[in-house]
C-alpha cells in the first residue's frame, strides 16, 4: 500500500527533489564563480610578481655591470696615484667589496626614505639568498607600491647610466 502513491504525491515528491537539485546547482554555481574570481586574482598577482622579478633581475644585472665598469675605471686610475694613495685606494676598494646584510638594509632603508616611500611599507630585513648571491634593490617594498618604486628606481638608474656612459665616452675619446 505504501508503494501505491497517488499522482499528486508523486508530483509533489518530484517537485521537492527538483527544488533540492536546483538549490544545489545554485550553490555550486556560486562556488564556481567565487573560485573563478580567486583564480583571476591569483593570475593577476602572478603576473605582477613576474614583472617585479623580471625588473629586479634586470636591475641586478645593471648594478653588476656598473660595478664592473667602476672597477675597471678604478684599476685604470690607481697607477696614476702616488704609492701612498695607491695603497689607500686599494684598501678602500677592498673595504667597499665587503658589504654586509646590515649595510644593505641600511642603504635600502635610506633609499626608501629619500623616495618618500617609507610610509607605504617598512623595510623588511634581507636574508641571504639560498643560491649564495646577495640580493640587491628593493627588498622591503610592498607588492602594491613595488612596481611604482621599481619603475622609479629603474628610471633613475637609466639616467645615471646615461650620464655615466657620457662621462666614460668623454674620457675614452681624450
TrEMBL record:
Compartment list? Nucleus
One GO BP? negative regulation of canonical Wnt signaling pathway
Q: Which GO terms describe its molecular function?
A: transcription corepressor activity
Q: Which GO terms describe its cellular component?
A: nucleus; transcription regulator complex
Which residues are in coiled coils? Answer: 11-38
Which interval of the chain is the signal sequence? none
Q: Tell me which domain of life the UniProt entry assigns to the organism this sequence originates from.
A: Eukaryota
Groucho/TLE N-terminal Q-rich domain segment(s): 3-117
Q: Which UniProt keywords apply?
A: Coiled coil, Nucleus
* Pfam family, any one: TLE_N
Question: Does Nucleus count among this protein's keywords?
Answer: yes
Give the PANTHER family listed for this entry: TRANSDUCIN-LIKE ENHANCER PROTEIN (PTHR10814), TRANSDUCIN-LIKE ENHANCER PROTEIN 7 (PTHR10814:SF33)
Family assignment? Answer: Belongs to the WD repeat Groucho/TLE family.
Q: What is this protein called?
A: TLE1 protein
Taxonomy-wise, where does this protein's organism fall, top ranks first? Eukaryota, Metazoa, Chordata, Craniata, Vertebrata
Q: Gene that codes for this?
A: Tle1
